[in-house]
Amino acid sequence: MSKVRAAITGIGAYLPEYRLNNEELSKMVDTTDEWIMQRIGIKERRILKEEGKATSDMGTWAVQDLLKKTGTKPGEVDMLICATITPDMILPATANIIAYKCKIHNAWSFDINAACSGFIFALSTATQFIESGRYKKVVIVAAEKMSSIIDYTDRNTCVLFGDGAAAVMVEPNFEDLGVMDYINRVDGLGRHHLHIKAGGSLKPASEETVQNKEHYLYQEGQAVFKAAVSSMANVAAEIMERNNLTSEDVAWLVPHQANMRIIEATARRMEISKDQVMINIQKYGNTTAATIPLCLFDYEKQLKKGDNVILAAFGAGFTWGSTYLKWAYDPK
Ligand code: UT7
After folding, report:
1. In terms of residue numbers, what domain contains 12?
2. Is the full-model pTM beyond 0.85?
3. Do β-strands 217-219 and 18-21 pair in parallel, antiparallel, or remain unpaired?
């Protein structure tokens, strides 16, 4: 019997109905559809508008979709990991709230805060628990209500982000399919270029922090862009080399969806043609931790058992990494 590997065995998702398109944004800030399409590649993003609804609600709907699709009873789940930077509240963890709302009562759960790398960091974490032999069903849910931390008067950031959630089931596989390798990296120096200035222990909320708009996401776009292009492309190339993969061996690149130009640079570095790259940035924008599983959700029917798939992400922290997996099931 071959080594136990951790394999994704199903995907669920939830996307809010409201579509914020470039035309509407151009009435809110000084921007145009042409600028956004040329510089980023986004047409519209989904926004959770319902009063009183939060990240945990989108996460819950995505997990419920996953449980239904995989025929899993809530009581069968051993562990739930939530990747998010927009938790419902500072504490408790959003994972705990999602587990409660999904009636997942026999599991333990926690959040992972790795921004746009959240899904791949969570997948590497889930892999350890599956490979240990102790856990059989681990749910990863990546959920973000980015609209809750965006200043819709700031054209530098408001055109970029959207809301959404996606969830995957991770289970043991004995056919040598699933997560084959991963490389994850961080560099805390990069935190200055992409962060939220207030609301944490360094600068608790005050009248002044609210007036100064310090609870919104702050990004120095060009610095992040430069780091993202080189780090994401290099780490994806590194994982290919380490596993003796050429571009012909790779069926799909699944890159984080922050900017079409970053996606294209990564594909070029891997010598992969654009039709092997999962792209849905035009529909959802940057949903932070949720971009990669939302791509897998959208392309699920095109994935075949045994396909070599490379995931690659870069985000605030800085955090970045790449995962190599062999897809574990044919379209259902
Ligand atoms: O997912 C987490 C990681 N994040 C990323 O990977 C994002 C990385 N960064 C980027 O994708 C890009 O830097 C942005 C899309 C954020 C910005 O694109 P850019 O090509 O780097 O533009 P820029 O910031 O250098 O700005 C160029 C010009 C500026 O005008 P001036 O100073 O040259 O007159 C900006 O004010 O574009 C202006 N600008 C806009 N114009 C129209 C910035 N935002 C907009 C806008 N519409 N929405």
Report:
1. 5-175
2. yes
3. unpaired
